Amino acid sequence: MEAATPTAEQQLNEIKTNLAVIRQKIADACVKAGREPSSVRLLPVTKTVPAERLRIAYAAGCHEMGENKVQEAREKSEVLSDLDIKWSVIGHLQTNKVKYITRFANEFQALDSLKVAAELDKRLQSAGRGMDVYVQVNSSGEASKFGLPPEDVEDFIRQLPNYSSLQIKGLMTLAIFSTDHDRVRTCFVRMRELQERLRQIAPAGLSFDELSMGMSGDFELAIEEGATVVRVGQAIFGKRPLPDSHYWPGFG
Question: Which of the chain's termini has less CB crowding within 10 Å, N or C?
């Protein structure tokens, strides 16, 4: 016999409870690191979560949502257009999809290509707006992952002032998917050290104060190493129907 589908009220209470647990863990990790809890932004990751459940999540306090597939994000943004949701695109972007994200996204966290930068800037200029952007770095060195090698980031960011509608805020990464905390932490340390270097040499107008790293399984480690944005999905919404390898390259 199949279990009954939870009611909207039950789902609301579940999400509220999960959010409270995560926020407490964020606060505890901040205390451990000698940081203020307000220095970390929680970005709920909503991939595979149906729009009707996101409407409930909005009522629970999720007013920012991150998606890694442009088509999925676009469809949800249209269905939920009556809600004041700030959408963040956190996955790899092809140039032919740029035209879509400029219509609904407030933020793009996965810039690793000057071609995408140029196309994004062109579309944003036409729309008369800017967009917050993070540069994605491949901190684990895995060939299956997107992002710039850490050693290429300095040259890359020197080109970014050419794209004036891109409001560069910081760096984003996916750590290695491992139960070995030392290996995971190494990725985060690498990002913190890179951030510190970039703050010294970044062209005028570019900020590297933000560090988006850490997900459901490792966000506390990420906070200890300086994360200012943590991207949490399953700990809020429950397990996804397919393994992580389906959504993130190099996982599973």
Answer: N
